């Protein structure tokens, strides 16, 4: 997290993969440059995505089709495999998905940390309003029934600048490590595309830690230790040169008490007011997710997950009982392997938020940005207090949304992980992800990103 010796740098590099949602085995290139020419992308050069060297003069779909044009049968797959639809109502299927992602999705190079997915997380991430079983696509070995690949899609309509787009979000693309030379990943993408197209949906949003043709935006991860001692004992953080354990604990200690007046946990009765806040707030960004009241109930409040196992949301009420702010984060722990003292790390990710302090205000207005900065620092600090009291060890945030207003002041360290945003079958001019295009450092001087979508 901080500058230090070579051992620390090596640990940072390996752990960066855990914050990039990447599933392909490729060397990580510079986030600013493509790792190879367009012609070397054997799969992507055949797909409706912009080329690296393409100047986008007009935004919109790349290809226009109708459902009648879509192949009606699944793409052929090797005879030893079969397509399957995972039933997330089934304990057996949930267990198989958990095992696949746990063993083969993303891990650090030393295989010390792994995402500890839960059934509650899958139900939250893959079953929002309008979810479809046919978009939970897997590949099993015919002979054994073992799940060896998966890709998931969920409804996720977008606003890109002033254009509303019917879309899906694609996530959790995972192929068993021993099968990554079998070209299963491109086949999964083609098949999920076919199934989405059959619903007359032609665009998709997805992210990757690797550079593909062509990033719409690139954000950088920031990490804020909440329990530095535990992170150090797990090998997650190293001791920077010139520091002591005591000094690092002192530098990262935060209060146990929230300070924002009117702060409380979000309740179901707040859903409509939070929806209104979100809907007014999202105009600050050039790409946002369109959410209904039901979407807010699921994604922010948590729906059936209101016991707080995955998503945590808080609101601020003024003296007239009007909700002026909300903030949320989700929890996805790491399992810690081969450590005699700790078995799990609590990891929180900043999710959506909104504040009246920024609604109707331009990010170019220096005075309003200062007021918003002060407000967001208070909200995020209190969210971290809540997370700390829930035994969370690290609080993560991307450089998206208005996060660059508080990342440095709240002692988020810039990570080595970058997250690239992509659109399928849609051309759009580049959108700022909150980092300097030359240095890749977080933007400063109250400059912010234009990315308002938070991908899991």
From TrEMBL:
UniProt cross-references to Gene3D superfamilies, sorted A to Z: 3.40.630.30
One cellular component (GO) term of this entry: cytoplasm
Native organism: Pichia kluyveri (Yeast)
One Pfam family per UniProt: NMT
Keywords recorded for this protein, A-Z: Acyltransferase, Transferase
Subunit-level organization: Monomer.
Its job: Adds a myristoyl group to the N-terminal glycine residue of certain cellular proteins.
Glycylpeptide N-tetradecanoyltransferase C-terminal domain span: 233-454
GO MF: glycylpeptide N-tetradecanoyltransferase activity
Entry EC no(s): 2.3.1.97
Keyword Signal listed: no
Catalytic activity of the protein: N-terminal glycyl-[protein] + tetradecanoyl-CoA = N-tetradecanoylglycyl-[protein] + CoA + H(+)
Lineage of the organism: Eukaryota, Fungi, Dikarya, Ascomycota, Saccharomycotina
Domain Glycylpeptide N-tetradecanoyltransferase N-terminal: 65-219
Family listed: Belongs to the NMT family.
Protein biosynthesis found in the keyword field: no
Name used for this protein in its record: Glycylpeptide N-tetradecanoyltransferase
């Amino acid at each position: 997290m901080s500058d230090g010796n070579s051992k620390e740098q090596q640990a940072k590099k390996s752990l960066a993969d855990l914050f990039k949602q990447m599933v392909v085995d490729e060397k990580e290139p510079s986030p600013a440059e493509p790792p190879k020419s367009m012609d070397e992308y054997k799969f992507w050069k055949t797909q409706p995505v912009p080329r690296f060297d393409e100047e986008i003069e007009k935004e919109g779909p790349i290809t226009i089709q109708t459902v009648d044009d879509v192949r009606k049968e699944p793409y052929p797959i090797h005879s030893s495999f079969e397509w399957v639809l995972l039933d997330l109502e089934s304990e057996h299927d949930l267990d198989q998905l958990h095992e696949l992602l746990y063993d083969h999705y993303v891990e650090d190079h030393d295989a010390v940390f792994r995402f500890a997915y839960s059934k509650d997380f899958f139900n939250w991430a893959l079953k929002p309003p309008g979810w479809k079983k046919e978009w939970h696509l897997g590949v099993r070995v015919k002979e054994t029934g073992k799940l060896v690949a998966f890709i998931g899609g969920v409804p996720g309509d977008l606003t890109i600048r002033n254009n509303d787009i019917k879309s899906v979000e694609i996530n959790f693309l995972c192929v068993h490590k021993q099968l990554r030379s079998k070209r299963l990943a491109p086949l999964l993408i083609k098949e999920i595309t076919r199934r989405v197209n059959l619903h007359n949906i032609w665009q998709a949003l997805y992210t990757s830690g690797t550079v593909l043709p062509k990033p719409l935006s690139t954000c950088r991860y920031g990490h804020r230790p909440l329990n530095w001692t535990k992170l150090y004992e797990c090998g997650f953080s190293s001791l920077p040169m010139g520091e002591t354990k005591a000094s690092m604990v002192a530098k990262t200690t935060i209060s146990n008490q929230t300070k924002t007046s009117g702060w409380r946990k979000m309740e179901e009765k707040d859903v409509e007011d939070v929806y209104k806040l979100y809907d007014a707030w999202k105009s600050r960004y050039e790409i946002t997710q369109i959410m209904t009241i039901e979407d807010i109930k699921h994604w922010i409040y948590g729906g059936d997950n209101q016991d707080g196992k995955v998503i945590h949301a808080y609101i601020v009420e003024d003296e007239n009982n009007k909700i002026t702010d909300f903030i949320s984060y989700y929890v996805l722990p790491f399992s810690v392997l081969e450590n005699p003292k700790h078995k799990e790390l609590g990891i929180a990710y900043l999710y959506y938020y909104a504040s009246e302090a920024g609604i109707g205000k331009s990010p170019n207005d220096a005075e309003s940005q200062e007021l918003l900065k002060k407000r967001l620092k208070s909200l995020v600090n209190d969210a971290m207090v809540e997370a700390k009291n829930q035994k969370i060890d690290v609080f993560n945030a991307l450089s998206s949304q208005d996060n660059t207003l508080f990342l440095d002041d709240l002692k988020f360290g810039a990570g080595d992980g970058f997250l690239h945003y992509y659109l399928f079958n849609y051309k759009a001019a580049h959108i700022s992800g909150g980092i300097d295009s030359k240095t890749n450092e977080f933007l400063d001087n109250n400059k912010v990103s234009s990315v308002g979508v938070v991908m899991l």
